[in-house]
Write a structure and sequence with these properties.
- The N and C termini lie far apart (48 Å).
- The chain is an alpha+beta fold and 178 residues long.
- It has a domain of 121 residues: Aminopeptidase (3-Layer(aba) Sandwich), CATH 3.40.630.
- Helices cover 32% and strands 24% of the residues.
- Strand 5, helix 3 and strand 6 form a beta-alpha-beta unit.
Length: 178
């Protein structure tokens, strides 16, 4: 709802056995566990250097800018969505950038992923935000098909740019890239 705390649940989806709720203080370890499961699925475990303390500060520190919702099946956390606000200068409004979404393999096919996306879409609509967007690895055909079935459009004409590590340090120092 407009004016509502960003991390608070819009309606908290509840369907037969499924509940989607915001992460609570003390659950950074659970979030990090899902991050690691996702990284393993994506064959990117070597890139995870986040710690529980980092996740805790990002989600529950003095000025959180990152938010997390858990999908629970019969009271057990089985998936998560980690997101933050982005902004469209063309549209003049915020949107949600979905950094990570993951449902454990044993719980796929139950509508959990669809419910998580619907939950975030409802938040966008309720807040007057303009879009819900995310990136997907180009080899992840099952996820691409799933996202397209939910109405997602692949933005083939856009290429993600990233500066990190030593290149980030050089850019910050004003050094010319080679």
């Amino acid at each position: 709802m407009p004016g509502q705390k960003v991390g608070a649940s819009v309606s908290g989806i509840r369907e037969a056995g499924l509940r989607i709720r915001p992460a609570r203080p003390g659950e950074a370890g659970l979030v990090l566990g899902f991050v690691r499961e996702l990284a393993e699925y994506e064959k990117l475990t070597h890139e995870v250097d986040a710690t529980e303390a980092m996740i805790d500060n990002a989600l529950f520190g003095p000025n959180p800018r990152t938010f997390c919702d858990f999908a629970e099946w019969d009271g057990e956390p089985v998936g998560f969505a980690l997101w933050f606000l982005n902004f469209s200068s063309f549209r003049g409004r915020h949107g949600i950038y979905l950094e990570d979404v993951f449902v454990q393999p044993a719980h796929r096919g139950k509508g959990i992923g669809k419910a998580v996306l619907r939950h975030l879409a409802k938040r966008c609509v309720a807040e007057g935000w303009t879009r819900l967007e995310w990136a997907v690895l180009d080899w992840n055909t099952p996820s691409i098909r799933f996202y397209q079935a939910q109405g997602a459009v692949l933005m083939d004409e856009w290429t993600i740019c990233r500066v990190t590590g030593p290149a980030l340090m050089r850019l910050a120092a004003g050094e010319v890239a080679r």
